[in-house]
Design goal:
Four Helix Bundle (Hemerythrin (Met), subunit A); about 60% helix; about 170 residues; 6 helices; globular; mainly alpha; 2 strands; about 5% strand
């Protein structure tokens, strides 16, 4: 694509046309966070300039929330491990997680999400899906769309946090 945004790259193989915007947003997320964060040191990855959330948190959260939202979209309850992971998203770990590991996790979850999109029949997009313990009402397309929007929101926060850390004006 030589620098073009994902949505200008044409159809994603196997993804139904109605879900193409979701696929493009998820693919763009991978591109955006890799461009912004790939060269961060471990200290920069877990820094909290001005008290904002660390880039490491956002990368873990993109991977984790994408996994959780796609789990709900498939009509499955979260596992205890998925629930426990929420509390650890902002914890660097010992030793602290590296940028390479976190970017790889984002890539894996986006690849898994693309597989879910490929297997999602158009006639099931409006099927009810309950979210969380309270089973808040949603549907398949709502969850898939939210996964992409949520990932892009956090990708934007990664970009902004890196610029803030490095004192970049744009």
């Amino acid at each position: 694509m030589s620098g073009a945004e994902a949505w200008l790259g044409g159809p994603v193989e196997g993804v139904p046309p109605l879900l193409m915007p979701v696929a493009h947003a998820l693919i763009q997320t991978v591109t955006d966070v890799r461009r912004a964060a790939a060269d961060l040191t471990t200290d920069e990855l877990w820094a909290r300039p001005g008290g904002v959330a660390a880039v490491g948190f956002h990368l873990r959260h993109i991977a984790g929330s994408t996994d959780r939202l796609l789990t709900y979209a498939r009509g499955v309850a979260l596992t205890p491990d998925q629930r426990a992971a929420i509390e650890l998203e902002g914890v660097p770990g010992t030793p602290p997680a590296s940028v390479e590991a976190l970017l790889a996790a984002v890539r894996r979850e986006v690849d898994a999400a693309l597989d879910v999109l490929r297997g999602t029949p158009a006639d099931g997009l409006l099927d009810f899906r309950g979210v969380g313990k309270a089973q808040r009402p949603s549907d398949v397309i709502g969850l898939l769309s939210h996964a992409a929007l949520h990932a892009q929101r956090h990708a934007g926060q990664v970009i902004t946090t890196v610029k803030l850390m490095r004192g970049q004006a744009r």
